[in-house]
Write a structure and sequence with these properties.
Strands 1-3-2 form a 3-stranded antiparallel beta sheet. The protein contains 6 helices and 3 strands; from the N terminus they run H-E-H-H-E-E-H-H-H. By secondary structure, the chain is mainly α. It folds into 2 domains: 67 residues, Arc Repressor Mutant, subunit A (Orthogonal Bundle), CATH 1.10.10.10; 36 residues. Strand 2 and strand 3 form a beta hairpin. The longest helix is centred in the C-terminal third of the chain and has 19 residues.
Length: 132
């Protein structure tokens, strides 16, 4: 029985690499995933196959078995996964304070002008919402 979306287990580092492939390329066969990951980090075919089977059992991917080569697609969205990991990181590393995370991130990394504009726009929107 597949877990519900609310109870999908947290992806490991290796599973995140596969999810990244599926998010970037859409539905893929094991061979597709293997070729992309092999280029990036030398992952073998059987490793990709086993990992996708485990991810299917965990409810992270769906498998279309209607064709000879099974096609996998991500069940969890990139945005939802990012939010889940970020919320966990804020809670565990920044005492539940999102602003501490932002200050740390911006203090240690150079943001592009475009990123700074996006951040200002977000801050302005949050500031307006706080006045309501």
């Amino acid at each position: 029985m597949k877990p519900s979306l609310h109870h999908v287990s947290r992806p490991t580092e290796a599973e995140l690499a596969i999810l990244q492939v599926l998010w970037e390329h859409g539905a893929c066969t094991v061979r597709d995933v293997h070729e992309i990951l092999h280029e990036r980090d030398g992952t073998g075919y059987t490793t990709a196959l086993k990992q996708l089977q485990i991810m299917h059992d965990k409810g992270l991917v769906e498998r279309d078995e209607s064709q000879r080569a099974h096609v996998y697609r991500a069940v969890v969205s990139k945005e939802r996964t990012q939010k889940r990991f970020l919320a966990d990181m804020v809670r565990r590393l920044f005492d539940g304070s999102p602003s501490r995370l932002v200050l740390q991130a911006l203090g240690d990394h150079k943001a592009s002008r475009e990123e700074l504009r996006e951040i200002r726009t977000l801050l302005n929107r949050l500031d307006k919402d706080a006045d309501r």
